[in-house]
Structure formats: structure tokens, C-alpha cells
Amino acid sequence: MQILFVRDAQTPVRQIELTPWRVFKWLCLLLAVLLVLNVLAGWLLEAFGLDDGAQKQALSEAQYEHKLVELEAQLAEMNARLKGMDATRQQLLQEQPATPMMQPGGAMTAPSVPVPITPNVQGGQGGPMLSQPVLPADRSFTMRIHQLELATLNIKAHSDQISDQMQTLQQFQLASPTGYPLPYQAVVTSAPGFRVDPFTGRSSWHAGTDYGAYAGTPILATGDGYVIRADWDDEFGNMVEIAHPGVNLVTRYAHAQDIYVKSGQRVSKGDAIASVGSTGRSTGPHLHYEVR
């Protein structure tokens, strides 16, 4: 194929022969020129701050930085909360009531005085080792966010674990029969152990503690639990027994004048369950309290 170029009658005619190879070279040259112009235009726009892509990238980086600041603040707050919860857990462990002591013959009774603390003994610590958040050296936004999110999940898992432990300790404290069975300090008329029976005058075993009190005085549950017995007994008279789940103990309140609860009822520490009386095998108004 030939192309003829005619300027005027006096100018010789120019002809260009179009071959496939020549057309291909021209197209390659045109493409190269367009690419150079595109790169040059992008450089000029970026140099003068007119590049929309650069603005979008800057905006994206600002959003990433804002997200990082939020995550770091949440991480610091969770760390502080975790330390507070751990301190509370340690306090609950220190305040955990002493286990009732086993008396001769298998009877259980709560200690009358606090168990002394051995001097110069430091408490131990333990638990799983959790990784601390370590930011990578390149400070990559994606990597930093990923590390902070992982650290947040680790702290949340540890926080949930401590929360469960605290709940268990609190439930154990409430269920443990460590409260006082009367609203005021009463005189102990008979302690646990061997004694002279008030009716026969012979030596006999007394499994609980007798508190002398006015008739009608409220008798209080010494721990959370469920009433497993609230009826008449030939020797104990009107009697209430409470099971304390979680600590495998039963408390007995005997010789009551009136009973305020019934079998199967759930009671809390400090609830009035009966009143002091002198029913059953009794010489006068008192409360027979027993932990077994």
C-alpha cells in the first residue's frame, strides 16, 4: 500500500509505502510517547499537590493512625483494669475464710479464733505466661494493628479467666458457713467436745456449740445454701439444717422456738431462718449450732 503526498504542481510527489513492519514501529513509538507523557503528568500533579491518589493515600494513613491510637488506648485501659482485677483477686484469696476444723469423732466446727498467719512467709504467684505486645521495627500500619489486636485478645482472655476465678472465690466465701448464727455476741454455754451431760451427769460427746440467748432471738444462716431439713427432732426439737454447695458442709441450728423456712428453700448468709427457743432435749433457751 502506498500513500502519495502532493503539495502543489511544482513540488515533486512524495510517496510512502505502508508495510506491516513500518506500521508496527509507528505504533510502538506512539505508545512509548504516551507512556512518557503519562509519567511526566503524574510527576507534575504530585509535585504541585494535585494528585488525587496521593491525597487518598494520606487520608488512608491518617485513618490507620487514628485506629492505632484507639487500639493503644483500649490496650492501656484493659491493662489497668486487669491489674485492678488481679489485685482484687489477691485480696479475696487473702480474705478467704479458714476451712472449718475437724474435731475428734468426725464432727465439724468453725474455728473460734482466726487462724494466725505464719510470719516471714511471702505469698507465691503463678499462672500462664502471656505474650506482651511487641511492635515490629518497620512500624507497618497493618502489622501494628494486627499486633495490637492480638494483644487485646490475650488481655481479654486473661481478664475473663481472672473474672471467673473471682466469681468462684466470692461464691465460695458466701457459701462457707463463717458467719455468726446470732445478731449479737452470745455466751457460749457448752463448747464442742466431751462434757458432763446436763440430764444424766455422765460424760458424753457434744458435737456443736451452745449459745445462750433470749427466747425469740433470730437465728441467722451462717452461709449461702439450701434448707435440707426444717422439722421436729426428738432430741434437737425444732431444727433446721442447711447444705452449703461448693464447700461440702452442712450447718445445724437446733432447739428453735419457731422455724421460718422450709425444706428446699434457698437462703443467703445472714437470713433469719428460725428463732431461739428451748425445744427438744434442752435445759433453757439457747441455740445449738453445728458445722459438719
What does this structure look like?
The structure is a single chain. The protein is an alpha+beta fold and 292 residues long. The chain has 3 helices and 15 strands. The chain has helices at 20-47, 52-94, 141-175; strands at residues 2-5, 14-17, 101-102, 108-109, 187-190, 193-196, 203-206, 209-212, 218-220, 225-233, 237-244, 249-259, 266-267, 272-276, 286-291. The strands form 4 sheets. Strands 5, 8, 9, 10, 11, 12, 13, 14 and 15 form a 9-stranded antiparallel β-sheet that branches. A two-stranded antiparallel sheet has the order 1-2. Strands 3-4 form a two-stranded antiparallel ribbon. α2 packs parallel to α3 (141-175). The radius of gyration is 43 Å and the shape is rod-shaped. The termini are far apart.
What attributes characterize this protein structure?
292 residues, alpha+beta
Shape: rod-shaped
Q: Can you write the helix and strand succession as a string?
A: EEHHEEHEEEEEEEEEEE
Helix content percent band: 25-40%
DSSP strand content? 15-25%
Q: Count of DSSP helices?
A: 3
The overall average pLDDT, rounded, is: 76
The residue ranges in which pLDDT falls below 50 over 5 or more consecutive positions are: 98-127, 132-137
Provide the gyration radius in Å: 43 Å
Cα distance spanning the termini: 116 Å
Class from secondary-structure proportions? alpha+beta
| Largest beta-sheet characterization | 9 strands, antiparallel
* Count of distinct strands: 15
